[in-house]
Amino acid sequence: MLDALTAEFIKSNFDVRALMRIICQSRTYQLSIIPNKWNEDDTINFSHANPRRLSAEQMLDAVAVATGVRPQFSGMPAGMRPVELPDGTVAGNDFLALFGRPKRQSACECERTSNLTLSHALNLINGQTLSEAVNAPSSRIAKLLESEKDDTKLVEEIYLSCLNRFPTEKEFAALDFAGAKSRSELAQDLTWALINSSSFVFNR
User: Fold this and answer.
1) What residue segments make up the domains of the chain, in order of their start?
2) Would the CA dihedral through 93, 98, 102, 103 be positive or negative?
3) What are phi and psi of 202, to 5 degrees?
4) Weakest mean pLDDT among 4-13, 102-111, 162-171
């Protein structure tokens, strides 16, 4: 497989996007995380996908994409993405440290942690990083509230920004438009709930 990918990479004149397209369009990459009776015990043959929690940098970047609010890092240029930080000594964001970003004191991947504990859950539920992103006046949510007056379209846009899909009929029916104090509260709560969902936190 590696020889075949190497050959394709050379053939495409070292086009990284073309290589990524080949991998992402493969059957193996697109396998479902839902096992069947034949492969539910398999852990080594790649017969089905295994959900993996996003890394610290991926998760913070995903929050930025979903909300439209980029985090700021001390001493770094504005708009810098978490994955672009030069090393593990950059301070100013406890979110990355909590979710396992390594200090890069060695080349060992064992420095990074990808577990999910109560501390992680509590941070996603009421942590400062997510709160500031969801409530920021310049957020995607605030802009949608101004530009989109149709509640159905508003909900669809939030689902697309967070999960890259439209809501199902069941999900849409579960929303309590009448019980919400305002459209703003509904939009912020929905965004918060989707970012806390397993579909957002895990690579599925």
Assistant:
1) 1-50, 52-204
2) positive
3) -110, 140
4) 102-111
